[in-house]
């Protein structure tokens, strides 16, 4: 009944929980703070989700004012407890994404960061995550100090040995990440940080990442292609990229404990090249690759008392000038938009203020759409200005931006920019006298206009409606053309040649109306074409199309040698060994022997140990029943080495059907011994500590006969938790014992999540199957990788029925915790560490309720068994 309930009802409960969160957002607000950071936040009076969301610092990046997503740099605490962090804000996503999409992007990223922390992948540490009553989500992550992005590191680092070390570390981190099922969809070079001193590597921006049980090589190559596409060959040479790919394949073979699924080197390189070329068709990828444009820093600083944002390049004198310009604009009593200019004495620039009175109707409209669109047109203007500046368009530098209430019904918005002084409008400049010198200067201006329009198009912006470019000319030895305002532009989701041709026709008409001759129009068109064809981003895209990784084999040289060397490394193992480390031998009578052994086992029993393993005598602790036995064997050490102790499990007689399936499909593991051997390898690949496998063998035939044996190393000086917990309660003080249990429970929750996140389930997850060192009952150690999980013979993977087996595992663990030294507080701590970050959903409540039912069922079953 519980299984049917899990399959049918739990998914429906999750969907109903999402629907209730849409219509009742206030009940869906929450705040989760990392336990180690609670004191820091509470000391600043941060106790509610709104307190974190309203934190303001330097806004360092954002996707424009229309998207409602941005990142601010904030400082928490003071003195020794000061913490530098980044606050990611995400406004209401809308009901469609809330219902059919994943959890809020920042909440999803927080859960991924927690999973990465469990797995030991270097990434930022989460500090707090939450959602306000208005539906705005946020994530506070700790800053990684003294790091630079990967592109900057390789551009400045000249030491070959240090570059090689960073590449190798990055390759092993990526291989480990992919082996654990993580896919980093935004693996661009700017999202990889390097500490130049320690050469440690960290991965950022996991908002769009996801996790699967097994990642296909298409997904893996897509991740690597993003890194390849955003690293120019002038920064990271092709030879170094090949070395990175070589180390990646070696690390993948190491972590997966198998070489059977690894593709050939040159085919993987070709696949990465093709995907990188496809990615470079996207403008945002080319922008990340391009290093020639110097950007204005988008460091927005919020001044709460004045209710405005200023950038880091805005001086104090310019802030004072802003107040005067705002006062002048108000005194004009003009409805709608007004533009004021003011020259700065002793400076070669002037200030431009775009001011707008917003009526009560417009204010209501902007307020309704503030989660999806800009609060005012000036916000959209600022976003487009910053966008086109990234593509080298000469325009005003943004200094300040704000929106304020004038009275109860209306508002005012403004945008302050810094522009070159002594400029004139393009049409006024053309009215100058027509002589030879002026005509030569006009030709320069025509070319500048053509290049400017080409840069605007390369940024993805086009002229809006019937508008044309608002251009101004600065007189100097060579006339400079500036874009006066971006009100005439609108963004397009992708390149649109039709719109570009329409813009060209508009500008030709404008130039002709100013008196331009045919020669001037030709200069304009030629400059436009030259700029488009010589765009550094497009040029880099075309260069990468040559395929710097997958070179033709006839080219020879270092690249070919690297490919051949890597293929020999990957393929040097015999094909029989690639079957997860198990050798297969076919006997003369048609039977099969599949076996694995380590050097220590072979040193004691020889190469022909498979002929005697079923008859080897044990030392002690022998148990036998129903055609199987287990016993301990102690072998003396050789050459001063310690003695070898292990347990030998043997199955002498298995069922007819298992033998028949083994005879029909001999390459698959059908015996309990070989299955547990593969389960131990799987758990080890997932990052769990399990007993070392010494030897394993499976005999298939003659006929349907099936036998097997497994030898695992004894856990020296280790005891199970159902014995260790009462022992620690006696050896430690109550306060120390409480801390001991809390840290141990956290590690057990981490191990359980490692299994369950990949849809693997133990099915015998009792306390007696967790082992720790006996000496650790005296103290509280760092439990990371010090708890060993045993008895994995029933380990299985279930995707569609994962909730059912999750309930079984957790109910077994809670049932087995009914021992001396464990109370409800410890069980609640386990659940707090185990469950996902975020609010308690309907699915969580139902899951917990069913786990309690299952727990009670185990208890009643055990009482009946004892009574009998």
Draw up the topology in text.
Layout: H1 2-23, E1 30-33, H2 38-43, H3 49-53, E2 58-62, E3 69-76, E4 83-90, H4 95-100, H5 105-119, E5 126-131, E6 137-142, E7 148-149, H6 150-156, H7 160-179, E8 182-183, E9 192-194, E10 201-203, E11 210-211, H8 217-229, H9 238-256, H10 265-279, H11 283-289, E12 300-303, E13 308-311, H12 316-331, E14 337-343, E15 349-358, H13 360-368, H14 377-389, E16 397-405, E17 411-420, E18 423-425, H15 426-429, H16 436-458, E19 461-463, E20 470-474, E21 480-485, E22 489-491, H17 497-513, H18 518-533, H19 536-544, H20 557-571, E23 583-586, E24 592-597, H21 599-605, E25 620-625, E26 628-635, E27 644-651, H22 656-664, H23 672-686, E28 693-700, E29 706-713, E30 718-720, H24 721-731, H25 734-757, E31 760-761, E32 770-773, E33 788-789, E34 796-797, H26 802-816, H27 824-834, H28 842-867
Antiparallel strand pairs: 1-5, 2-3, 2-12, 3-4, 4-6, 5-6, 7-9, 8-11, 9-10, 12-13, 13-16, 14-15, 15-17, 16-17, 18-20, 19-22, 20-21, 23-24, 24-28, 25-26, 26-27, 27-29, 28-29, 30-32, 31-34, 32-33
Helix pairs in contact: 1-28, 7-9, 8-10, 9-20, 11-19, 16-18, 17-18, 24-25, 25-27, 26-28
